[in-house]
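Obj.: predict assembly geometry.
Materials: sequence records (below).
Method: joint structure prediction, all chains together.
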Amino acid sequence: MMPAADQDTIRAIIDARSANVSSGEVETSMADIDESVVMFDVVDPLRHIGKASSLARARSWRATFEQPPRLETRDVEVFLSGDVAFSHFLSHVSGTQKTGQKVEMWFRTTLGFERKQGRWRIVHEHGSVPFNPETGHVSLGLRPEGKPS
Amino acid sequence: MMPAADQDTIRAIIDARSANVSSGEVETSMADIDESVVMFDVVDPLRHIGKASSLARARSWRATFEQPPRLETRDVEVFLSGDVAFSHFLSHVSGTQKTGQKVEMWFRTTLGFERKQGRWRIVHEHGSVPFNPETGHVSLGLRPEGKPS
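Observations (raw structure tokens):
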């Protein structure tokens, strides 16, 4: 049902993404993204369809920072059967933009995977921050309850 | 790899949810939610862990409306293998809250499924609206490009 080796591969992909973003390797951080990816990003627009759009977004985000932002994850859960898997976790990004603006926020990430020709590919990505319905503002100051696992 | 019957079951669960929300059947709309669900909702907090928290959120949201809001989906894609599946799609909600506030927005939904004792269960839900990084406001006015499929 859930072979340890495949679980490990999925977790390694997630860890490598964080490491590559944190070391400024934007292209490498997107290596496991499938050409067909449908990405729901934390910021506008509603969605990106295809890797080219997703990659352009990653590049332009990275370009707002002088030094690479630091990306970390916690509470990674992986569900896997046969050639399909998905994972959800909390992500934390911190850094300083070229404008001097400090970025430090928790967001939620869900990834969908499909094994294609023997290789696990990210075919769906959903990142988001919830909003406060009273104010219409995004809730950038939220923190997970409890300690990081 | 992707038996049509299972695909149909997943799609029927998604359709039933929209129908049940739209007819005001909150409890029924949550029937396929697993006790273990981890839900990332469109509004605060960062996450809900467990069905009780998720159901409380659904009830309190419903209670802000006199008449049930209308929930619709488009561009539903399902990935399924063995006993795991995930789906992503766009959702549209419209209605009028008791305060007189009109609600009309597109949001993104990802659902994660696991088959437990022969029954497909929603073990993860991620709903969100992106925000505008210039203003910090949630982007409630976004519309999908093209026509509904």
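Conclusions so far: The beta strands of chain A are 33-40, 48-49, 70-81, 84-96, 102-116, 119-128, 131-132, 137-138.
To do: check interface contacts against the pulldown list.
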